[in-house]
Design goal:
Radius of gyration: 15 Å
Shape: elongated
Strand content: 15-25%
Strand order of the largest sheet: 1-2
Order of helices and strands: EE
Number of strands: 2
Structural class: mainly beta
Number of helices: 0
Helix content: under 10%
Distance between the termini: 22 Å
Length: 71
């Protein structure tokens, strides 16, 4: 509510936090559910260092269906 839509969401976990907590809420607005029945949301966790300005080493990947069986 109150935020402009965007294509990508980034979150931060601070250095050497062995028990990170995420409290973000991501909302997805879909105009026509029938167009998205086979789409998924992909979550990536990457390790980034100050030495390497590249994208960061992927160490975890998860995905889930954007639309459930009941819509």
């Amino acid at each position: 509510v109150g935020e402009a839509p965007y294509d990508e969401f980034r979150s931060t976990v601070f250095y050497h936090d062995n028990c990170p907590l995420w409290a973000e809420t991501v909302k997805v607005t879909l105009e026509d559910l029938d167009l998205f029945t086979t789409c998924h949301v992909v979550l990536e966790a990457r390790h980034c260092t100050t030495k390497d300005e590249k994208k960061g080493k992927l160490f975890s990947l998860g995905w889930f269906p954007l639309v459930g069986e009941n819509g």
